[in-house]
Amino acid sequence: MKKTVLSLDCGTQSIRGMIFDENGNLLAKEKIIYDPPYVSPELDWAERDALLYWKETGLICNRLKANHPEHFNSVICVAITTQRDTCVPVDIKGEPLRNAILWMDQRKIASPKPIGRLYSWGTSAVGMRKTIENFSRSCPAHWIMEYESDIWEKTHKYLMLSSFLNYKLTGKFIDSVSGQTGHLPFNYKKQVWDGKWGLKGRVFQIPSQKLCDIVPAGTVIGKITEEAALETGLPVDLPVIASGSDKACETLGTGCVSEEIASVSLGSQATIETMSERYYEVQPFIPPFPSAIDKKFNPEISVYRGFWMISWFKNEFAFREIQKAQVTGEAPEDVLNRGLKMIPPGSDGLMLQPFWGNELTRPESRGSIIGFKEDHTRFHIYRAIIEGIGFALKEGMEKIQKKSNVKISRAAMSGGGAQSDEICQIMADILNRETYRVQTQETSGLGAAICAFKGMGVYDSFEAAVHAMVKVKDVFSPDRNTSDIYAQLYEKGYAKIYKRLKPIYMMMEKIEHEDIDK
Predict the structure, then answer these.
(1) CB 274 within 8 A of CB 491
(2) What single DSSP character describes residue 98?
(3) How many CB atoms lie within 10 A of CB 124?
(4) 378-404 and 421-431 helices cross at what angle (nearest 10)?
(5) Which one of 48, 362, 487, 510 has the fewest CB atoms closer than 10 angstroms to its CB?
(6) Mind listing the pLDDT tens digit for each residue in 164-177?
């Protein structure tokens, strides 16, 4: 019987259950779209009942069992990959004490926790004190400590979503090293929990006893318990393999195993990253996250809201396209993407900077659209959004190349935006690099499957698994004339926007905070 593995990908908008074979073929898939994806009890909050994720995990597995029994019965193990930086505080029995706080949540404590004189002086000296303070203020654990102290006292383990789902499957508080990406006291260089007096330990003051055990991705972390078997339909004692975070798995699943290839994720959070054996910080105090491959790193630049902005645009401006899609049975995004062809490169002078959510090293930043004229339409705005995200990713690519001293020669596209040929071509033209897609849009799931097959010994290395399981399907080559247009727009326009608008951003932030204080 053919060997298969079950990948569970718990994302921001949906959860997918996928069965892959050892050649990287997607044999079966089930999907549940969250409705709603999160709730906001207060402005800028984003929460969700953690048990909903577990309930949906069970539903996905049972659907696969019912609809694809021949593939389900050949599964030799399970691996979970999830959205990053979504936290779940649990009691000693592993039960959630409150809703999960999602990665896009923007609540903050009033004042940062003190990190000590030496670190305060050092971060001030390199101009990163405000960024460090922003990290401390935005840490969900610190918010719980300050505003829900009774819950924090009961918190036995402070888990990431992946750790929580691994616990529900195995009964063990354990996760992969690669899954510890977020507001956590994690030493990214050594890939271990940081000590109490380390920099990360001072910035994120979570006691070590409240953290889970961590192991390299591709490690067997436990087996399906009887309770989990009843919920999911999976057989008791089926092995569970530690996987990577969703972005780390995307990078693996697109075949990016070196510094010459960039993994570009066009998802709710857009990112560009490579895989490196060297530790280096593309931006000061912003570490490269742990790769799914042990002792390797994923230097990364992120566009915080990324292709979430497409959902924002669709909800605010695309009523006609939504109506048309309902009639034709298409996705609204397909209707919008066809409209991209009607607008020339550069959106007839409309330019967008996609900082709808604060950027890590530019905490005062905001989104901006400049260059409006009377003949601009909503399709100009839509194309400007795509191009603005592309310019931000190009900026990230240049920062990575400058720091690594390695030229990126190709870029792999993944995530929801990568399903569009038009968007992939725009990215190829802006980055001025050949871009490609692999055989499945479910690259996070494929990356988790690679971890699973490696963990079960089907492949003796991650590189061998990638070679066997990842196949380039579509290639987009940059158009020289269009790339030249974008290069001028980027160098003479986009690259100058932030510096020119920073004083205005800072003034607006000050006024907003003063209003809140009143």
Answers:
(1) no
(2) S
(3) 12
(4) 50
(5) 510
(6) 999 999 999 999 99
pLDDT (tens digit, 9 = 90+) per residue, 202-228? Answer: 999 999 999 999 999 999 999 999 999
Structure letter (DSSP) for residue 212: P
The Cα-based distances of 475 to 397, 435, 472, 492 in angstroms read 19, 6, 8, 29
CB 404 within 8 A of CB 280: yes
- Burial profile 26-53: b = 16 or more Cβ within 10 angstroms, e = fewer: bbbbbebebeebbeeeeeebbbbebeeb
Structure tokens at 413: 């596209």
> Would you tell me how many other CB atoms lie within 10 Å of the CB of residue 74?
16
Would you call the peptide bond into 36 cis, given omega within 30 degrees of 0 as the criterion?
yes
412's tokens: 């792999």
Closest CA to 440 of 274, 249, 254: 254
Q: Kindly list the distances between the CA atom of residue 146 and the CA atoms of 143, 195, 243, in Å, as whole numbers in the listed order.
A: 5, 22, 32
- Which of 265, 186, 183 is CA-nearest to residue 447? 265
Q: Model pTM?
A: 0.93
Alpha helices in 84-188 (DSSP H): 117-125, 129-137, 140-147, 149-154, 161-170
Q: Which amino acid is at 58?
A: G
Measure the CA–CA gap between 139 and 162, rounded to whole angstroms.
18
Which of 124-128, 367-371, 408-412 has the highest average model confidence (pLDDT)? 408-412
Residue (of 191, 132, 193, 130) closest to 158 by Cα position: 193
Hey, how many other C-beta atoms are within 10 angstroms of the C-beta on 488? 11
Structure tokens at 78: 């399970």
Q: By the 8 A CB rule, do 5 and 453 touch?
A: yes
Tokens standing for 269? 């959070």
**Which DSSP helix (H) or strand (E) runs through 462?**
helix 462-469
CA-to-CA distance for 415 and 207, rounded, in angstroms? 35
Sign of CA dihedral 60, 64, 65, 66: positive
Q: How many helices (H) and strands (E) does the chain have?
A: 19, 24
Per-residue pLDDT tens over the stretch 38-79: 999 999 899 999 999 999 999 999 999 999 999 999 999 999
Residues 129-170 have pLDDT tens digits of 888 898 999 999 999 999 999 999 999 999 999 999 999 999
Distance CA 455, CA 217 (A): 8
CB 424 within 8 A of CB 415: no
Q: Where are the beta strands (DSSP E) in 11-54?
A: 14-21, 26-33, 47-48
